[in-house]
Amino acid sequence: MGSKERIQRQKEDTRKGILDAALQIVKHEGWNALSMRKIADAIEYTAPIIYEYFPNKEGLLIELTRQGYAILGKKIKKAQDSETEPAQQLEAMWMAYWQFAFNCKEMYQLMYGVDMNCCELKKSLPEAEYTTKLFSDAIDKLVTKEPRPEDIICLKYYTFWSVIHGLISINLTQKGTNEEINQQILRGAIQAIIRTIND
Fold this sequence. Notes:
Residues 35-54 bind DNA. Residues 12-72 form the HTH tetR-type domain. This is TetR/AcrR family transcriptional regulator. The chain folds into two domains: 1-54, Homeodomain-like (Arc Repressor Mutant, subunit A); 65-196, Orthogonal Bundle (Tetracycline Repressor, domain 2). Helix 4 (57-81) runs antiparallel to helix 5, helix 4 packs across helix 6 and helix 5 packs antiparallel against helix 9 (179-196). The longest helix is centred in the N-terminal third of the chain and has 27 residues, at 3-29. Helices cover 75% and strands 0% of the residues. The N and C termini lie far apart (62 Å). By secondary structure, it is mostly helical. It has helices at residues 3-29, 36-43, 47-53, 57-81, 86-103, 105-112, 126-142, 152-173, 179-196.
């Protein structure tokens, strides 16, 4: 490996270390405790080094948000590919979304501003648009109405998201109900919305 490649790899490793350290701080202390100084202490660098990789805390949060959507997109696509029938695909996708919210709680909180201020994105991230498109395309497969209402896919997507995100938020910010009841509510809501797609 040449010196240029070695330097590039070291930079990538340092950048990854900064992001990993930020997530570890958040897992132990919460988003409000995160600071560039704490990250620098965790990776045993000076704060100015971190600013070589991220212009400010907002830039770091945007990168973590982007990574979160990339992970979520892969999980949703994998869930979709695990089923063949459109209705089952859509249900599997929303169940994967639910699982991501609790398995990657800190990422989800950042991405959707649950119990914290999320970073303000000046433009939508391609990774976020990808996850929305996966859901929209899956809903589109179930629409049989003719003539096709233009806004039905958007309406149904936001109906799904409002209900599921609401249930997730209740469970993340305060003690919700037990997991068995959550699963009943979740599956019942998904199946009920699927049944209304062509109403």
